[in-house]
């Protein structure tokens, strides 16, 4: 079965002319894995030249790096293969949200009046003073010391967090471990709202 | 003497057109003559835009002033598999802003693979007084704040479907924002949400919406609460359970079984995360009526699967993990003679060795036992040409065939030959095949078969296949109805692409990644074809810093009347006349 191809003359394809052989004429069967790029047997000599030279001059693309000609390929994971929806992996991770696994616990931190939020890894800290010091440095503000009765009395800023039930709590009221496992995000309140908490 | 079209009363034509709802038919009507074009555009109520960058919202608004329903798709399909870098595009906000001004009476918005911000959701919530249905399929970029706005403001909402979307920082309180007076909900799908929703709010919502037919919960809804929900909504037709495990307690079990028995209309079940098999018999009362069963997330062993599936004699659609094994598929083939759709997913996709006994034999059994089979998605680790030929002959009604042999370039394991002949038989026998995904060891010959026989093929997915440009050329020149072509890791390059440039304008889009298309060819194509957007996606940096004959990382070409887009991130370049 021969096929004819119509070239659009204005595409100026002389340099890249595709020539056809009879289908199935010179294609040997390949029982083992074939490299994903081979020089095009049916192409013009110029193209073969190009494809040989591009192997050396280009930054290796995924295609080039897919070539393995000698040893059997190491089992490296190919991006997006097999074609499974990636969000499912995230779903499964979300199920373990009660466990604090080794991957870090990033929460968003907002400060009233600041134009954008930051994210910090709560697992890095071992105690409230460490966390508060970091927040003070990050946002260039003073939060002060916590006391059970008076919160952060006198400070213009009050660190609060949203817990698993969706309620906003003052940072410091519960033991550190309980805080870590229930904190969803942090908000540093400012001004009169903050001072109201401290009274 | 024939009446002229213009003497046919407009109202009459409008009335006739009100019965014509399919997009293709509507498009055909609009091409008959100018007056039909005019009448049609004034009474078109629904529009489907398969590629949000193919047209600008103003153009849609100008042509169709009376829309009530808009459906848009954004990112290319391979975005599902992490092949489209974050930030590529597909932001819906410009559309939402334009729709908000133009269509105050808009009722439905359906989005797929788009980036939806909370701001967009807020605009939707506040702009459309009669808003009824929101479907966000595989979308991302929004949080429960946006959902809260929808809940609080859309008084007539009938459907909220978040299928497979990624929702940021979920907190469960948004559900409480539905006012107590809100009772119109008919469909709710929150299965993708990671965190708990407020159960009491959910229970009250379900209890006060008498039209609720579809309820898909997320994994965080515990099993012991499910019975309460079911008793509050015995009219449910489609249910997605939450986590399906708890300590086996007789009263919880009998409560649940009783609740299921009360749901006489139930036709579709899904969910089943974390299944404790002892609770599966609780659904047996509804099995005989089920037409759709989605166990894609149910990590249960073959024996339990077989017991469950054997009860579902009316089943038409089954999604299941490969725990079902060949033996389970044999049982399926024996019981479920009405089966039209089967999807078998891998339980251990990245494992080097097979963990279950699921082979080509399972699919052969189903094709033999289920004559109505139309749609298949099958992940397995071995295949033969002989099996494919058998499957091809057994299922004449097949319209969608997707086979994924997990190891790239795996040959026929018995003969060590490529699978060209097997897939050749597939396309030759499946006369109505519209969608095909290939895998395994394949040469250019399979593409010759596809170009010769797959005349109704609309979507083709290719990976690690072919030998040369000839393969791509066969497909582009032979498949007359081709609409979407997506290719990764194949040795296809400039020649076939340039020689078939005109074909690309008849298709929605072409995706090629890790192939051999040079930057020069991309520029040439972009220059010569003004109605195509030729987008080069390359995270290595600007393509003009490398030799012109260097292959680009990824290429996405789509037809458009909107011209090049202006929201591209730094790693995407549009090839147009100026860039050459």
UniProtKB/TrEMBL annotation, chain A:
PROSITE patterns: PB1. Keywords: Auxin signaling pathway, Nucleus, Repressor, Transcription, Transcription regulation. Residues 54-63 have a biased composition (Low complexity). Residues 1-79 are annotated as: Disordered. The lineage of its organism: Eukaryota, Viridiplantae, Streptophyta, Embryophyta, Tracheophyta. One of its GO terms (biological process) is auxin-activated signaling pathway. Homodimers and heterodimers. This is Auxin-responsive protein. Its main location: nucleus. Aux/IAA proteins are short-lived transcriptional factors that function as repressors of early auxin response genes at low auxin concentrations. Repression is thought to result from the interaction with auxin response factors (ARFs), proteins that bind to the auxin-responsive promoter element (AuxRE). Formation of heterodimers with ARF proteins may alter their ability to modulate early auxin response genes expression. It is found in: Nucleus. Signal peptide: none annotated. Belongs to the Aux/IAA family. GO terms for cellular component: nucleus. SUPFAM superfamilies: CAD & PB1 domains. InterPro entries: AUX/IAA_dom, AUX_IAA, PB1-like. Residues 104-191 form the PB1 domain.
Automatic annotation (TrEMBL), chain B:
It holds the Pfam family Transp_inhibit. One of its GO terms (cellular component) is SCF ubiquitin ligase complex. It comes from Salix brachista. Residues 8-49 form the F-box domain. This is F-box domain-containing protein. Pathway: Protein modification; protein ubiquitination. PANTHER family: F-BOX/TPR REPEAT PROTEIN POF3, PROTEIN TRANSPORT INHIBITOR RESPONSE 1. Keywords: Auxin signaling pathway, Developmental protein, Nucleus, Ubl conjugation pathway. The keyword rRNA-binding does not apply. The lineage of its organism: Eukaryota, Viridiplantae, Streptophyta, Embryophyta, Tracheophyta. The keyword S-adenosyl-L-methionine does not apply. It is found in: Nucleus. One of its GO terms (biological process) is SCF-dependent proteasomal ubiquitin-dependent protein catabolic process. CDD domains: F-box_AtTIR1-like. GO terms for molecular function: auxin binding. Transmembrane segments: none annotated. InterPro entries: COI1_F-box, F-box-like_dom_sf, F-box_dom, Leu-rich_rpt_Cys-con_subtyp, LRR_dom_sf, Transp_inhibit.
């Amino acid at each position: 079965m021969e096929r004819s191809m119509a070239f659009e003359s204005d595409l100026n394809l002389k340099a890249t002319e595709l020539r056809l052989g009879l289908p199935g004429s010179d294609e040997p069967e390949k029982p083992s894995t074939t490299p994903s790029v081979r020089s095009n047997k049916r192409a013009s000599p110029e193209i073969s030249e190009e494809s040989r030279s591009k192997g050396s001059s280009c930054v290796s693309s995924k295609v080039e790096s897919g070539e393995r000609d000698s040893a059997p390929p190491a089992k490296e994971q190919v991006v997006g293969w097999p074609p499974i929806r990636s969000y499912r992996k995230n779903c499964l991770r979300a199920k373990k949200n009660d466990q604090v696994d080794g991957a870090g616990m990033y929460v968003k931190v907002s400060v009233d009046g600041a134009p954008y939020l930051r994210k910090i890894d709560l697992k890095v800290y071992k105690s409230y003073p460490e966390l508060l010091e970091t927040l003070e440095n990050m946002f260039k503000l003073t939060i002060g010391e916590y006391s059970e009765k008076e919160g952060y009395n006198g400070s213009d800023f009050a660190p609060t967090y949203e817990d698993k039930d969706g309620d906003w709590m003052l940072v410091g009221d519960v033991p550190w471990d309980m805080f870590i496992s229930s904190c969803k995000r942090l908000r540093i309140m400012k001004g009169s709202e903050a001072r109201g908490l401290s009274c | 003497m024939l009446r002229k079209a213009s003497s046919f009363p407009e109202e009459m034509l409008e009335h006739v057109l009100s019965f014509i709802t399919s997009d293709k038919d509507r498009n055909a009507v609009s091409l008959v003559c100018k007056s039909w074009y005019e009448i049609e555009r004034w009474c078109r109520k629904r529009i489907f835009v398969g590629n949000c960058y193919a047209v600008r919202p103003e153009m849609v608004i100008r042509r169709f002033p009376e829309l009530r329903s808009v459906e848009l798709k954004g990112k290319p399909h391979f975005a599902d598999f992490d092949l489209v870098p974050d930030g590529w595009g597909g932001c819906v906000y410009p559309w939402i802003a334009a729709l908000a001004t133009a269509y105050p009476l808009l009722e439905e918005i359906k989005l797929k693979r788009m980036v939806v911000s909370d701001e967009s959701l807020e605009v939707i919530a506040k702009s459309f007084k009669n808003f009824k249905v929101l479907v966000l399929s595989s979308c991302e970029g929004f949080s429960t704040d946006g959902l809260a706005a929808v809940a609080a403001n859309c008084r007539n909402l009938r459907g909220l479907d978040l299928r497979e979307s990624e929702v940021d920082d979920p907190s469960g309180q948004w559900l409480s924002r539905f006012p107590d007076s809100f009772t119109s909900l008919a469909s709710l799908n929150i299965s993708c949400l990671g965190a708990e929703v407020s159960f009491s709010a959910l229970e009250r919502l379900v209890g006060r919406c008498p039209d609720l037919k579809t309820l898909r919960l997320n994994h965080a809804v515990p099993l012991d609460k499910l019975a309460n929900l079911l008793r509050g909504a015995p009219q449910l037709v489609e249910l997605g359970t939450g986590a399906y495990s708890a300590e086996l307690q007789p009263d919880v079990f009998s409560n649940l079984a009783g609740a299921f028995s009360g749901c006489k209309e139930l036709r579709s079940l899904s969910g089943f995360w974390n299944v404790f098999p002892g609770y599966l018999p609780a659904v047996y009362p509804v099995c005989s009526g089920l037409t759709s069963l989605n166990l894609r997330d149910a990590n249960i062993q073959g024996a339990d699967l077989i017991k469950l599936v054997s009860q579902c004699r009316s089943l038409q659609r089954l999604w299941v993990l490969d725990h079902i094994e060949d033996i389970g598929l044999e049982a399926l083939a024996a019981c479920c003679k009405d089966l039209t759709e089967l999807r078998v997913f891998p339980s251990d996709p990245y494992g080097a060795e097979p963990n279950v006994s699921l082979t080509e034999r399972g699919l052969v059994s189903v094709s033999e036992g289920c004559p109505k089979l139309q749609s298949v998605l099958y992940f397995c680790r071995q295949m033969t040409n002989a099996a494919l030929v058998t499957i091809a002959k057994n299922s004449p009604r097949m319209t969608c065939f997707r086979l994924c042999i997990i190891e790239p370039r795996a040959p026929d394991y018995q003969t060590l030959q490529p699978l060209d002949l097997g897939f050749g038989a597939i396309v030759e026998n499946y006369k109505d095949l519209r969608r095909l995904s290939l895998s395994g060891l394949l040469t250019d010959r399979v593409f010759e078969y596809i170009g010769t026989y797959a005349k109704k093929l609309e979507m083709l997915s290719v990976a690690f296949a072919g030998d040369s440009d000839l393969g791509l050329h066969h497909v582009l020149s032979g498949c007359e109805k081709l609409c979407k072509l997506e290719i990764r890791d194949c040795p296809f390059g400039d020649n076939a692409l340039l020689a078939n440039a005109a074909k690309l304008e008849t298709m929605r889009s072409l995706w090629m990644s890790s192939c051999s298309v040079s930057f020069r060819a991309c520029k040439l194509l972009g220059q010569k074809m003004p109605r195509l957007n030729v987008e080069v996606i390359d995270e290595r940096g600007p393509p003009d810093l490398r030799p012109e004959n260097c292959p680009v990382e990824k290429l996405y070409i789509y037809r458009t009347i909107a011209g090049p887009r202006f929201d591209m991130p730094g790693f995407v370049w549009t090839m147009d006349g100026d860039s050459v």
